Amino acid sequence: MRTVFGYLLIVLLLPLAVFLFYFANVEAQQVKSFDEVVEEKIIINDVQLPQASQIVDKNGDPYLEIQKPFRIVVDGEEIPSFLKEVFLQSEDQHFYEHAGIDAAAVMRAMLINAQSNEIEQGASTITQQLARNIYLSHEQTLSRKISEVLYAYQLEKRLSKDEILNLYLNTIYFNNNVYGVEAAAQFYFQKSVNKLTKAEMAFIATIPNNPSLYDPIRNFDNAKERQERLIDIMEREKFLTAQEAEAIKKEPIKLNVRERVDKFENYSTYVEAELKELIASSEGFDEQLKNADGEKKIQIDHKLDARVEEVLSSGVTIHTALDPNMQNKTTSAVSSTLAGSSVEGAAAVINNDTREIVALSGGKDFDKTEFNRSFQAYRQPGSTIKPLLDFAPYVEKTGAGPNSMVSANKYCSMPGYCPKNYSGKEYGMVTLQKALANSYNTAALRLFMQTGPETAFSYLKKFDFDRLTEEDVSPSSHAAALGGFKYGMSPLEIAGAYTSFIDGTYVTPRAIQKVTDREGKVLYEWKDESERIWSQSTTNTMRVMLSGVIKSGTGKKANPGTPYAGGKTGTSQNVRDLWFAGLTDQYTASVWVGKDQSGNVSSMQNYAPHQIIWRRIMQ
Question: For residue 217, which of 123, 223, 355, 441 sits 20 to 30 Å off, Cα-Cα?
Answer without folding.
Answer: 123
